[in-house]
Design a protein that fits this description.
With 260 residues, this protein is mainly beta. It has 2 helices and 16 strands. It is globular, with a radius of gyration of 21 Å.
């Protein structure tokens, strides 16, 4: 009888340890949740979206695991992203920072922007004007031009054009090196991405450049839910729940949001 309290504590501790191990394994090998903090992927992803990223889509690298432990080099197995994938990766100049962008260029591709138009391997990527995206920052509504962009492989998605004379609406040609990828945000004039690199004269704190394949974390698969800008609440304030969640953004497949 005297040993029961100690056994109970040990049983509880073992349960906690098992739960933590299961969570770490699931997060490392299956799916990892991420929160979207910026507007760079509007209107595909909004600030306040919570998404699941599949870790197995591109294989595993050191950054698939907690703390980025250098357990091995490269990717195992090595599965390449496809044009148009929305991918999470570690920022090359600051590997502790997670970024999310759309994969536009694969190794060997030539990428250029001319008057805001994407040119991939000398082919102007098709853009079709669709409805405006309504930006509601600060309680003021402002329409933003929205286009459907279709890559040569048939992958289609929506992009925004907020500025006809954006900083990177005209660029030199980028040639994607072997083992790297070129990524861009869907909110083209408000995204720091692979267009910003050391060779183009941008400030060091803006550098993104080409994405090493080792830095890929996984492919964004689903929006679990989304919380608006007014989502400041205490857990017990249940009466605020209906107004803090965005309608229509529960368990939304990002693959269904695109035309394949």
């Amino acid at each position: 009888m005297a040993n029961k309290p100690k056994e109970s504590v040990w049983d509880l501790l073992k349960t906690v340890i098992y739960a933590v191990l299961i969570a770490v394994v699931f997060r490392s090998f299956a799916y990892e949740p991420f929160h979207i903090p910026s507007s760079s992927m509007r209107s595909t992803l909004l600030e306040g979206d919570y998404i699941f990223v599949s870790k197995y889509s591109y294989g595993y690298s050191r950054y698939s695991f907690p703390f980025g432990l250098p357990l091995f080099e490269g990717r195992v197995p090595d599965r390449a992203p496809k044009h148009g994938d929305v991918a999470v990766f570690r920022l090359p100049r600051e590997p502790k920072v997670d970024y999310i962008k759309r994969i536009i260029g694969l190794p060997g591709d030539r990428v250029r922007i001319s008057d805001g138009k994407l040119i991939l391997n000398d082919e102007v990527v098709k853009q079709e004007r669709v409805d405006d995206f309504i930006n509601r920052d600060g309680g003021v509504e402002r329409p933003i031009l929205r286009f459907r962009e279709t890559l040569p492989n048939g992958r289609s998605y929506l992009v925004l054009d907020t500025d006809s004379y954006g900083r990177v609406d005209n660029t030199e040609e980028y040639i994607v090196p072997e083992g790297h990828y070129f990524a861009m945000g869907d909110n083209r004039d408000n995204s720091t991405d692979s267009r910003f690199n050391a060779d183009m004269g941008f400030a060091k704190e803006e550098h993104v450049g080409f994405i090493p394949e080792e830095n890929l974390i996984g492919r964004a698969e689903i929006i679990l839910f989304s919380m608006n800008d007014e989502a400041e609440f205490a857990f017990w304030e249940v009466w605020k729940y209906p107004s803090m969640f965005r309608d229509g953004r529960f368990f939304v497949s990002l693959r269904q949001e695109e035309r394949l």
